[in-house]
Every structure is written in C-alpha cells, then in structure tokens.
Amino acid sequence: MAPNVIIVIPAYNEAATIGDVIERCLKAGGEVIVVDDGSADDTAAVARRYPAELLRNEINSGKAASLMKGMRRAVERDADIIATMDGDGQHRPEDLALLLACAQDNPGAIVIGSRLADREAFPRARYIGNRIADFWISWACGYRVEDSQSGFRLYPADLIDRIDVPHGPERGFVFESEILIEASRAGVRGVSTPIPALYEGTLVRASHFQPLRDVLRIIRMVAWKLISRGFYFPGLWRVVRG
Length: 242
Fold this sequence. Notes:
Elements: E1 5-11, H1 18-28, E2 31-37, H2 43-47, E3 53-57, H3 63-76, E4 81-84, H4 96-105, E5 110-114, H5 124-141, E6 153-156, H6 174-185, E7 190-194, H7 211-228, H8 233-241
Parallel strand pairs: 1-2, 1-4, 2-3, 5-7
Antiparallel strand pairs: 4-6, 5-6
Helix pairs in contact: 5-6, 5-7, 5-8
C-alpha cells in the first residue's frame, strides 16, 4: 500500500507564488497543509482557493514554528511521510517523485533534495554558506550531510514525536539543521537525492535566508551541540574519513 504523504508548506508573504505551488503539489499526488505565518499580504486568501488545509499563525512566528505546526498536524492526520517545501517557487513539486523513490530505497531515513550538483545555478554567497554549514552539521551528525540547508525534504512521520527540537521565533533556519542532528541521535540518518537549484528567474522575491546571519546562527547552535558532547571527535573522524 502506498504511504500517506502530506506536504507541509510554510508561507510568509507568498501570495504571488503559493497558488501555483499548491496546485502543482496536488497534481504531484500529495495532500497539502499550508501554514500562513502571519502574512501581511493575501497568502491565506489565495491558499483558500485550493483543496488544501490552511493553518495560520496570528503573528509572524518564523519558519521553525510554522514547520513544526504543520508537521504536528500532519501526524494528527496519520501521515506516514511528511514532505516539506518552500512556498516561494524554489522547489519543484514535480521533483517529489525523486524524493519518494529515494525514500523507498532508504526506509525510515530523512530524504533531502540536494541542489549541490547544480552548483552553477547557486548564488556564490549561498553556495559558500551552504558548504560551511554542511561541514559543521555533518560533524554533529556523525556522517556527511549534503545540502543541509535544503528545505525540500521527506521526514518519517513517527520521528516528530520522538525528538524535541526548539522551534521558537528565533530558531528560523536553525530548525532544519538542528532536526538533522537530533534525528541522528535518535538513530535516524539523512540521505540526499539530486534536484535542480532554482534561483535565477524563478523567485518573485528575495530569499528570507540571509547567508551571513543565518549561517552564524547555525554554527553557534552546532558548536553548543558539539561542546555538550565533548566535541564529538568520533563524528568528526567519520566525516573526514568519508
């Protein structure tokens, strides 16, 4: 029997793109939950035009809070697999099939849609920041993580109740890095499958991700994780050794 896949889309001021993203997700075969993060535009009104569940944060609470809210609702709806993607058009819902094929080959794993094979499409600062974050997160996880900053992922739904990851407003993009680390401590690894990197000509607005600020926040979180484990040198050795 095919797994019950529910797609969670956090959205903040995505009125220009959210309708197209939802429509394509529905065609790709998944149920959809949109979490409107206190948008000041018509994101919620556009989302209501489609057969998707709409959740709302009354105030802007950040991507972490929106993701966790949507994931918990997906668990309540008996999801087997929770897919996450952004609402700004940088992920192609049509590529969901690639991630699901990878999940079938790696049952119980987190599947990450990796854009790194499409390096030429990356803005230089984004690529460098991504690679720096990958090293630190790989060390803390104890295995090599590819494209740790990709928000296009599949999670086994039972993972959400097994780990506790902070998701307050200040966690922002830290959440998606920290959940990989906490999952690894719970015995759940991440695997990657290639997807296109979509930047030039595809995004209506600038990314909410700020390479310097957000990478520094991620490094600070990872550094604390490593310090709390005595710097976890076995993890570093496994990453360096490959």
